[in-house]
Structure formats: structure tokens, C-alpha cells
Input
Amino acid sequence: MNKVENMKPCAYRVDDKHYSSAFLDWCESQGVDCRELGFLKNQYRDLYEVFIEEDILMYRIKEDDWEEFGDSFSIFGGDRKSFYTKYGVFTSRDAGEWGGSLYCPDGVGVDYLSGNFVDVFVHKDKVYAIDCCRHMWCHTEIYVLEPDKEPKIIFGEGDPAYIEYKGYWIQEDQLFLLVMEEHRLCVYVLKEDEFCLYRKYDYCLYDVRNVVVQNRILYAGLSKSIFKLDLDTGEGEMLTDLNAFAQWELVREDVAFNSTTIE
Output
């Protein structure tokens, strides 16, 4: 049982880092079990997923659930993921800068949409489809789909700003979005079919696996760490279960690996 409360504060830079081949070679030469060091060997991203089980905040390492198809280096390949809703299955084919499509089930007003769709969910009988591509620049548009109606963009249309979708949550029947806008975390809330800015925070996150909010505290599952943010005070903290050796390897900058540092 991995409880978030047992994690310890860590350097902000642990997120979005990877281990050097020299470090991994040293671990192997010493017969070190990489799991005992708190990471999975040879993985660039160990994505942590946050979830609630019997009112206890938990986490687990969760593989990216996108599957490859075709040739990922051409317009005929990329990643594919299915989103299951009460209206049926939505399937996204995402080829990055080469584009993509969202194939929709019957009865939602459209057969498919063009774009890089990274999330699809239902709130109050409406389907929200998130189009977001990060390549040299990032922009996010949110479509609303309803039975027998034309799709409508309610967020990001025509906005040239850097906006990257990170996740969503529902609290007291209100829909909230977490995005990174101009390299600052922002929370938006849905009011009368329009997303309005709720608050900005002076933090920047990279790969986010998922978002959970409990008692006005946001927990974002990242690579090798979890980010904790008090939505009211704006105070943030990075948490990890990695030991000191693995953390040092991740946050060091332009320093050649030296096994004597660990020994």
C-alpha cells in the first residue's frame, strides 16, 4: 500500500528528469535491485498515478496507456487511446505534429474531429474533448459535444497563448481544469458554458499523469514524484518516494556520474 502521506519532500527538479546510463550501469554492476532504489530501470518516465481508496490518498506507478500504431515517424502512425463514456467509445489517434483525429460513437453530433485529443470525459450529459499538442509550441482547445448538436469550441479558440492541458476534476458539481499557461499553472472553472480563470499559481509542471483534489489540496501525479498544491494559499510542494541516491542522480546538472559519491 503506497500512501501519499509517507512520501517525503524533494527537489522541484526531480520531475521530468532521467537517469544516466553510467548510473544504471553502476547499479547493475553492484547487483542493486532498482526497485529498492525507488525507480524502474531504463525508464525515462516513471509516471505516478494518484487515487483515493477508502478515503486514503494513494499512488502507484502507472504505465502510459497510449498504444503505438503504424510508423510513429510518419503521418500514418502515432499513438492511440480509447476513452469510454456512457455515449460509447471515443478513439483518439495522435501523431503529434503530424496531426490526429478523434473518432466518435453515434449520437454525439459528429463522426470525427481533427486534432490531437488527449482526454475525453462527460460532465452533466455533455462530452468534453480536449485537443492539445505540444510540439515547439502548445495550444489547447476544448470541444463540447451533445446529441444532435454541432460540436462547439468553448475554450482556446483563436487564442495564440501557450496553453497546455494538465487535467480536470469535479468538485461540488463544478468542473475545474488545470492548465499551464505561459509557464504558470492556472485553474479554470466552468460557468454557464464558459471556462473562467479561477486562479494562477507560480509553478510549472511537465508530464502530468492525473489530478486528484482532496480537501482543497490538489495532487498531480508526475514522473517519479507527486506535486501537492494548496488551492487556497497557493503553497506547493514536490513529494517523492525515491531515496537520496536516486534523487541526487536526477537533480545533478552537468556533473559526470562518480560511483564514489554513492559509495
